[in-house]
What we know:
Layout (H helix, E strand, L loop, with lengths): L7 H7 L26 E3 L2 E5 L6 E3 L3 E2 L10 H16 L4 E3 L7 H12 L6 E6 L4 H14 L5 E6 L5 H14 L2 E7 L6 H10 L4 E5 L11 H8 L2 E5 L6 H6 L6 H4 L6 H10 L6 E2 L6 H9 L9 H13 L1
Parallel strand pairs: 4-5, 5-6, 6-7, 7-8, 8-9, 9-10, 10-11
Antiparallel strand pairs: 1-2, 2-3
Helix pairs in contact: 2-3, 6-7
Amino acid sequence: MSELFDRPISRRDALRVGLGVGAGLALGRLPLGASPSDALRLADGLYTKPIPSTGEEIPIIGIGTARRYDVGSDESDRAPLREVLRALPELGGTLVDTAPSYGNAETVIGDLMAELGNRDQIFLATKVRQEDPADALAEIEGSFERLRTDRFDLLMVHNLVGIEHKLPVLREMKREGRIRYLGMSTSFEGQYDDFVSVMETEDMDFIQVDYAIDNRGAEERILPLAANRGMAVLTNLPFGRGRVFEALGDQEIPVWAGEFGIESWAQFALMFAASHPAVTCAIPGTATLEYLEDNLGTARTSRLPDQETRRRMAALVDSA
């Protein structure tokens, strides 16, 4: 879903933008107990991880577009979003996640990519939610039109709606070359049992799930299963709908966290999500250049936290 429900003031208070370039490490498929940094590769200044089904590398931080991209045609509303989409590939990023249910977001993204002429530099992910098969096909075709593209890099069944009917449609579209990857998404713990059941029985390239330092339920079954089944993982709501900033925003970044290059609480939260060995890419909602630079700074550190540091990070949030 990729919604960002943080409060701009609290994040701005916590924000310390900084971009430090680290050294690339060798690519490798990891068991869940391995060091998070062992599967990283430095590409265009950002660490990347491989999509298991193909080995294609994508940066470990992307952007989500819910709420903040639901704007009209007013230039004052679109200008900061244009700057984000312009700067994303220039800074080494690629992945943009959206959905037809995000209001006007698809139209805005399609318009801005057309203006910027950088569609071929974007890994474009969207979703389909309509349950009726005919309505679902119409929704997909509408997404192609709104996003001004003839191919999606990733198309996901949104929140499991009509999953049994849609996956065959998505597979046919993949065979036709209209989409490159397929998958499904959720952002609700109440769907986890059904989500796991589909993961166990269906072959998919990607899943998307809510996962944050204060919302670690996906660690129990979903993330290990994704690793075992060879599915890439996008994590939405990495700031816990703003709860991370509310809990930690008034504190100083701990010295031990700074040793990993963490310079803001946003990077702290994103590093936790991205450092899980099963996670391919975290997708925070990103609607300003300032936030983009800070978020991508997470992927420019010398290393990601190891398992012991991840436990220490979670304990800090749990005690706040």
